[in-house]
Amino acid sequence: MLYIKYSDDQYDAFFLAQLLILGILPQGYIYPKKDRPVRDLARKRMFLVQHKTAHILSLQSLIQRCCARKVSASDMRHLTVKELEAWLEEEYLVLSAHSI
Predict the structure, then answer these.
(1) pTM of the predicted model over 0.85
(2) According to a count of CB atoms within 10 Å of the terminal CB, is the N or C end of the chain lower?
(3) Running DSSP on this structure, what letter comes out for residue 26?
(4) In this structure, is residue 43 part of a structural domain?
């Protein structure tokens, strides 16, 4: 990545010209107004999917560390509170699993 030390119009123009010459200037796209809500929904869905995945992986890691059990992501969806309480014997671990 190229970094510029100074920031004014002359240096910015030179920096952008160098990126263009090198062929690494990312191309921008301005969505038409009618398509922006769909783009925003897609971004929000991606955000929620990433967070859901992070929570599932975190709970899998907690169970594997504390119980030496490997639970698949599909089995995680059907996990009950009683199963968690049976596997995680200490109360702080159960509370931690509930918060995930």
Answers:
(1) no
(2) N
(3) P
(4) no
